[in-house]
Amino acid sequence: ILGDVDATINALQGGLTAVPLESAAALVGRIQGGLRSLGAPGVQDVAQSLGQLQQALTTGQLDGAGALLARLSAQVIDVAEQQPGMIGDRLRTLSGLLTSASEQLR
After folding, report:
1. Is the distance from CB of 82 to CB of 90 less than 8 angstroms?
2. Which tens digits make up the pLDDT trace of 32-67?
């Protein structure tokens, strides 16, 4: 999961249009599966939001993506606070980038 989170961080740092929708959807799917393995409270909420994001990316139906990213950011930070070490740090970084991305889409 760490590699996929890092790839997402790098993609978001490059801007929302830096990654093709198809590649972004595949990455979101991998992260969704990896997060489930953490078993932390709140992971199911993140997984559900990631599923919605993956569907939006796959179909190109991005109306409401800003609100979805904002909700996902809040959910990710909740999970991050329960994770020690590097994964918690990366998830906190990811949450901040999701917030920035959500603001760009509003």
Report:
1. no
2. 888 777 777 888 899 899 999 999 988 988 899 999
Is the C-alpha dihedral spanning 66, 7, 47, 79 positive or negative?
negative
89 vs 106: CA distance, rounded Å: 26
Residue type, 33: G
CA distance 23 to 41: 28
Q: Would you put residue 62 in left (φ > 0), alpha (ψ -120 to 50) or beta?
A: alpha
| Alpha-helix residue ranges (DSSP H) falling in the chain | 2-13, 21-36, 43-59, 65-80, 85-104
- DSSP 8-state class, residue 19: S
Pair 45, 75: CB distance under 8 Å? yes
Place of tokens 């109306």: 63
CA 50 to chain centre: 6
